[in-house]
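re the bet — no i am not wrong, look at it urself. input seq straight from the record:
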Amino acid sequence: MHRSALLLTVASLILSAFAAAAIAADTEGTVAEVVVTAARQELIGTSSTASEGIVFNDELALTPAFRPGQLLETVPGLQVTSHSGEGKANQYMMRGYNLDHGTDLAVSVDAMPINNPTHAHGQGYTDLNFMIPELATQIKFTKGTYYADQGDFASVGSIHLSYLDRIDDQVNLTAGNFEFQRLLSAGSIVAGAGCVLGALEVQHYDGPWDSPDDQRKVNAVLRYSEGDERDGSSLTGMFYHGLWNATTDQPARAVREGLIGRFGTLDPSDGGRAQRGSLSGQYHASLGDGLLNANAYAVNTQLTLWNNFTHFLIDPVHGDQEAQTENRIIAGGSASYQWPAQVFAVGTDWLTGVQVRYDINDLSRLPTAARTVLLASADPASADPATGRAVER
């Protein structure tokens, strides 16, 4: 007999002997509980068809995520990466499409649409840094242009995440390479007919760069919910604030000539500042044979990105850094009703609804040096004669 086969046989006999002894030792005649776990392979993203599906909570719980966008990679065919600093919105790719920061990927969290139209940095900008991964529950996704209810950002796909109503009390402290530190405190308590959930996240991360990202962010969530999946409601408040430095794309010749290293930058003052506050409510109830869903939200997002993409091409004295800034207020909501019906003896589901959203947005794009807006005397080519200050390039 081959040596490995012999060892396997001996191990099996020993385990069988232990099991028999355990059963014989059970004086009450009952067998101790045995948990059998099958091999967990190819389970990420359970699809009902090739174009839609659900990622269940068990898979999300097993997914390590030091940035929230990594949870979305449980969706088959979706890759999520980042550039220009940890605090910036992720870059998304699906089915061979480069979706930039979310231009063609509709994303919602707790029924709030995250894509921002006419954004200072790009159409559909989708920043998920306000999301706490441990609170995320079932991800519903679609792929393709077959879903009219998903809106104009979903020409390639859509992602819908929800937040938990309850979570075990916990305090987690994590530390890792490149000065990664994270503190999470979360818990929930029964309150009246429902439950109150609270969570606080604080994180710092430098990354591998010569000029550290020095990402600092804080997230807070307070949520009240009651009922179940068919009849219930929730009210959620969220707050996020983030600061970071950014190493953007650099000239190859600067690396070849030794001006900077592979992880270096010609402008260490590049970076960003982001803030988001929201209040949202959801209501769902059984109505006749169908299900009524309604939600409303109010959001304020603020973002400033300091980028220097061309270095000294435009301004050989101060450099080409610019501040892309926006301050956005969003108000909106939706209501829908879904019911089953028989059409020529074929079971079907019907859905009707309405979505409303209104954005008030203040945008600017100004020349800066080391994050300071240039005055007219420093940048006469872009001066506003009335104010003497620099205007948008």
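see?? DSSP finds three helices and 19 strands in the chain. told u. also The longest strand covers residues 346-369. so pay up
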